[in-house]
Structure formats: C-alpha cells, structure tokens
Amino acid sequence: MHQFHGGAYHVGEQPAEPGDATWTNGQVGPPGGAYAGNGDPTFAPADGPPPSGWAPLPAATPPGWPVSGGWATAAAPGPAASGPPAGQHHPAPAQPDGLTAEPAPPRVPTPPASYSEPLWSDGATPTAEDFARRRQARPADPVATMGVRAVLNRTTLGLVKLPPGRHEQEVKHDIEMVRRNFGGLRQVTVVNPKGGAGKTVAILLLAMTFGQKRGGYVLAWDNNETQGTLGMRAQQDFHARTVRDMLRDLAQFQGAHGRVGDLSQYVRSQGEGMFDVLASDESATGGEMLTASAFAEIRDVVSRFYKLIFVDTGNNVRAQNWQAAMDATDQLVVTMSARNDSAETAARMLDHLEQSGRQRLVRQAVTVVSMPPSRKEIDLPAIQEHFAARTRAVLLAPYERLIDTGEPIRYGQLSSATRDAWLKIAASVAEGL
C-alpha cells in the first residue's frame, strides 16, 4: 500500500537474618495479625529488660503456634500478673562501673513478601482507585503470530519468543483503529458521480472490514436515487425488500414500537461479513426519486440499531437524497478508477462541495484509487498528486479478479493482499471518525 501525506529457602523469598522471627510458612516477620492497623509493626526489643508497658512473653509456645521470635502478643483476659506494688519498680541489673543500662534498640523485621509498597506517597487517605490499581497486571510482551516469526515461535515450543515484525505491528495498529470507540453514531459516505468508479465495491469492502473487526452493528445503505447495485453485489437473504418497502412501513419503527428483530424484514444479513445491507429500489420503474425528508426519516430509524452506517450514493449531485447524505456525513470517501475521466469527475465534485460550504468534508476526505490489472497507460502520479493536495489521504486498492467479475462478494474469498489493503483503508477512515 502507498500513502501520501527472580541453608535453605525458596526461590523468590529472602533468607532470614540471624534473630529474625520465622514462621512455618517460611516468611520473615510477623504474620498478618502482628501489624497494626496503620501499617506500623508491633515489636519488642531483642534483649534487655522490657520497656514499661510491655506485656511479658509466655514461657512456652502452645503446640501448633508459630514461634513468636521476640514479638509481643495481645494479653489474653485473666488474672493480673503478680508484680511489685503500685508505684514500685524492679531494680535495674548491676552493670560494670561507668556503664549505664539501656535497652537494646528496637529491631524492625522485614514485612512479609505479600506486602507491597503503597501506591500513594503524599500522606493522603487511599481511595478505591488506588486499591484497584494494585491489581493491574503488566501486559505480556507481544509475541509474533504472523509470518516466519510465528512459525519459529511455534516450532521451538516457546523457547524462542520473537516479537511481531513490522508488517504484523502495522496490521495490529490498523485493527485497533477500526475497533476503537467512536463515541456515537457515525456515517461514512462514498461518492463519485461517475458510474464504474468503485463506490459499491468500496461500500461492501469497508462494511465487511469494519463488521469483521468490530463484530457487527454496521449497515451498508444504498442511497441511490433510482436503481442501485449494492443489493446485487451483496449476499442474498430470505427476502428481497428494499428501502422503498421500509419507507412504506416506517410507522411501525417510530416511537417506542420499533425493534431490531423487525428490522430484519427489510435489511439483508451478510453472514460472515457481519453487517447488513439496506438495498435501494432494484426496479427500473420503481417510481419517484427519494427526497431529503425520506432520507432523514430512514436514517432516524436505522441510527437506533446501528453504530456505523456506510452510505452509497448515486450519480446525481443535485438529487435531494444526495445532498441530504452530504449534510449527515462524518467522513467522506472519494472513489475512482485509475483513469483520467474517473479522476476528473471526482475532482469536479470536490469543487462543488467546496463551493457549497463543505470544505471540511473535502479536506478530511479519504481518496481510494482502484487499480486495473495493468498499470500501463495510466497517469497514476498525477492522480495521486492532485488528490493528496486536496484530501487527507490517498490509498490504492489492488486489483482483485473476484471483484472484477461483478458477482456477489464474500470476505473469505478475498486474497490476503486485498484484505490487508482494505484494512489499511478502513483504518484511515476510522482515523477521521
């Protein structure tokens, strides 16, 4: 594609220092209950007389209890321990001349390995968000799943874990772009007044790509003023109803009565494509053209059931429904074949849009050039240069024989080159949404 623009201790544990209290589970320091509620450990001096207010330790540890290791425990209820009368103190033990008895400095043991540093350091009270952040796991390093790198990863049974190559990284980036949340309903309109410019193919392949990657809620709507071909190139369904049938029965979808299940009588499910098609009138004698109000009424209904709408347009820029589609557009896609006449028609249409106050649509538009089987006798550089100067991106869609046959298109039958190209185009479109 081209585009312008971690003695005996277990591994992972710290060995106990001499004098450290060690519990049966191997952790250094007190069990969880030995920590005060404010996070400070409760401790006793390692040797020397106990300071005033400290409870005496029991002479023996009950069976099954961990060795206290010098830690004071809460005194159990019972008779008070015998001692000197109130107001008297034990005499201090004799010391060598010139020395004063002082208690040994307290020793703070190492906290258990299960404790972690707090995520807050400013002294503020922790919040639920602080607690939840502790559970956030570091994402695993990406491993290649495509190409030769993926083969090596599989054949070495995990001994070699190669990261994704450049192509796979680009593909993943494009998929992320297509899958992102657009924050509401979005409409993509595909235009070129000239017939045979690839509008219908672009609608189908964009809807397929977005449907496949996003998992549905995508509609392809043929807004041709008369007879369109979107329904002919799409997969057939149990019915052949069109937009005119839906317009006639629109009242049943208005208010709180409309249900998505009822809509299946008017749109055609595309199966593996994971999108639906709302076909235009397929009869050459269907009657009057759709009006701007008809477009607005239909769009109001379908917007309740879909997140992304792709609108195919006809060849008459003066038609009311064509103009109404432009007014509702979030992202414009300009299609053309790699021929001068197709490109010139698209250029004149951009002139019209700019003159009618739609400069933003033109500047943010994505141009898609459908390539022929051979590049002989086409002035591709001139086409790319002109539309790169006027639109946000110019991308090439490779030739696909399946598309050229005019038969219904199935996503699984497309070549990998075509799928990759249209994924790139879809990512560029998503960037503007």
TrEMBL record:
InterPro entries: P-loop_NTPase, ParA/MinD_ATPase
GO annotation terms (biological process): negative regulation of cell division
Chain intervals for the UniProt region annotation (Disordered): 1-142
One term of GO molecular function: ATP hydrolysis activity
Coiled-coil region list: none
Keywords, alphabetical: Cell projection, Cilium, Flagellum
Domain of life: Bacteria
Biased composition (Low complexity): 68-96
Composition bias, Pro residues: 47-65, 103-112
Protein name in UniProt: MinD-like ATPase involved in chromosome partitioning or flagellar assembly
